[in-house]
Write the structure tokens for this entry.
Amino acid sequence: MTDDLERRLADAARPAPTLDLERLRATVSRRADADGLLDVAHGSYDSPLGPLTVFVTARGLVRLSYPGEGLDRQLDELAAVISPRVLAAPERTDEVRRQLDAYFGGTRHDFDVPIDWRLVRGFAGDVLRATARIPFGAVSSYREIATEAGSPNAYRAAGNALSSNPIPIVVPCHRVLHAGGGLGGYTGGLDRKRFLLRLEGIAAG
Amino acid sequence: MVSVHLPPFERLIDAHARELHRFLMGLVGPTEAEDCLQETYMSALRAYPRLRHGENLRAWLYTIAQRKATDAVRRRMRRPTRDLDGVEPAAPPAAEPADDGIWMNVRALPAKQRVAIVHRFVLDLAYAEIGARMGTSEEAARQNVSAGLRRLRREVTP
């Protein structure tokens, strides 16, 4: 009798119920957004340079990452620095994705999205803000950018800031080259840097 | 930087939604389990940044799920008559076709017994773990399960 009841309970608990995890995630995101509880939203974007991940906050675009940059680590960083309310919500990234479409399609030269600078601090922030002012089709050098950022001699530090740019493409660190014309470095790899420069009509490297 | 390390919220969904769903199925049945699960995550999301520490987030989610399940059962009991407010359900709720009859009886158990039975037979947990999750001793967990079983044995038709 005892065994029978316990067996019936265990049997009745099987099979495990099916749960549509994708739908749950989407519903929670949608409701979170409606209730103002979605602090960091992300969505992916298929670019000619591979799938990018777009992260936005209430203040604007906070990160744009190339594949293979360690998504989990980036999510952890955003949770720690911005807010742990991090959810996939592709609709929230639509405006950025539309502008990226136009940029890669050659119909847009300037991005017009607010930037959330909270992932960069101090001198790195000055360097990246200076970089954001380099117009489409133009290039600058590490030393020029360091000067713009207020420390002409800090071109190595400027290089470091550029290599950890959380918002490549939109903050166009690909437009910064060596003074002699050499390509310099690039987070996404030099092939991507070359691609972006060519897209903007710049012959380099 | 925030001193408390909390993982990105979406990770809590990926890591725990399936087992929480299973837990809620046992507590409230298939029709309401998904609603309760959604409400569990919404409440969790609301409170999340204010958590003082990031340890045992799973136990925290179980506590919220349990509360949502209790709310759902109370709501259901309130439907036929308003006199039962706050009273533990004494009779099994209306039958749900997709469900085995025995869970109807489980749902009619007093809260502690119901939760302990679901932990034991749906999640297949040891008594020490059940105690830990319910904030009681291992012995209390064992007693809740056996009291629940005793009551079920009187009410369940073999």
